[in-house]
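Good morning N.,

You mentioned wanting to compare the apo and holo forms, so I went ahead and generated the holo version with magnesium ion. This is what I fed in:
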Amino acid sequence: MRSHYSGEISPELDGKSVTVSGWVHEIRDLGRLKFLILRDREGFIQITAKEGITRSEVLSDIDQLSKESVVEIDGRVKKNEKAPNGVEIIPDRINLISRSESPLPLDVTQKVSSDLDTRLNNRFMDIRKPEISAIFKLRGKILDAGREFLKENGFIEIHTPKIIASASEGGTELFPISYFDREAFLAQSPQLYKQMMMATGLDRVYEITTYFRAEEHDTRRHLNEVTAIDIEMAFIKDEGDVINILEKLVLTMIKEASHCKELDILKREIKVPEKIERIEYDDVLKLLEEHRKKLPWGEDLDTESEKLLGRVMREEFGSDLYFVIHFPLSTKPFYTMPEGERYSRSFDLGYKGVEIASGGQRIHDPKLLLERIKHFNLDPKNFEFYLKAFRYGMPPHGGFGLGIDRVMMQLLDLPIREVVLFPRDRHRLTP
Ligand code: ATP
Ligand code: MG
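and this is what came out, ligand included:
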């Protein structure tokens, strides 16, 4: 059993016996002096073996090691200003636990760089690189912070089905699967189920989950398997209550990221805004037009508009994050609460020119909901299980879906495939 991670071995432990385990990152053989650089989750530690001091058996064990093998090493800690972190281990015993084959499919030391495809094909090894594992450590930390925030605010964690009988939101972007003798689909979002929870008395819920989008995207920001934080909350006054929660949630997550030591390895600095701008859809159209982009009223923001808006918000308002509020009803799904004839109580959250969340107030009146389902030419029969939950007492409610992959990519300015362990896209299904 390991007694210490590399990061815990400090000069203060000088003279102490320790056991470390990890991967053989590098071996430098200077003849009578051999350095083994051991890598574990926390970093690196230098193992120094010297003829005359180290047992000859240990020296020959080092000669037998291949790079990336897993070893366990017992030794003594020795202060050494010249070693990384000012400390090294003088080995007493080296136990080879699992031998690595060679040649390696990837160079973990990064002396030879690999393209993204090769990296993703060998993702287990790619993640051995400290600057790649840092991405996923950071991802775990901001999720923890988000979860903590939701818990503190009375949200209950739930899990909704991912195998569903019909489309949640209409449209054609579903993956069909065979379910015994029937056809079923992979869920494109928890939407209908989290709304049904509002009829149960569990009036604040959240789910951190994967969903599936079958569009044939080929962009820097779309995947076919998505991870998101979805929430739904009842007894709201309007969508403003939902926006306030999302604002605090996202700022909490970004603040957490800004403190993470992983930022050093990633060579990033993150500034935490105090609040997030809110801008009306109609004003977005005006801003775009001032920058020679004409978007017809009633259309959703296209990629170019999103990018331009991100640039303008940064350059003219100094904001990387901004809510676009009151979208035309025509751009939003059937369950969206109308605001007057043409607008909706909806919002998107943009981050540096990319949508990271969508949400709003939902319709809670079953008659209006049925009307809107018909308006979208959806078959009410498919929604009966959902509509039923609205007929026996349904409070006003709203919520959002916040894409975690999108948050991560914008936070670190990386393409989406870099921040997802095993991305799924049109061309990639393994590993
Ligand atoms: P977009 O317009 O960017 O394609 P959307 O409006 O279709 O996204 P929503 O249905 O609003 O997406 O989903 C809620 C959130 O889930 C999005 O704001 C985004 O963060 C994330 N998301 C949705 N689809 C994808 C996808 N294909 N890849 C990555 N993230 C996604
Ligand atoms: Mg959206």
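Residues 348, 355, 358 surround magnesium ion (ligand 2) (CB under 6 Å).

Happy to go through it together on a call whenever suits you.

Best,
F.
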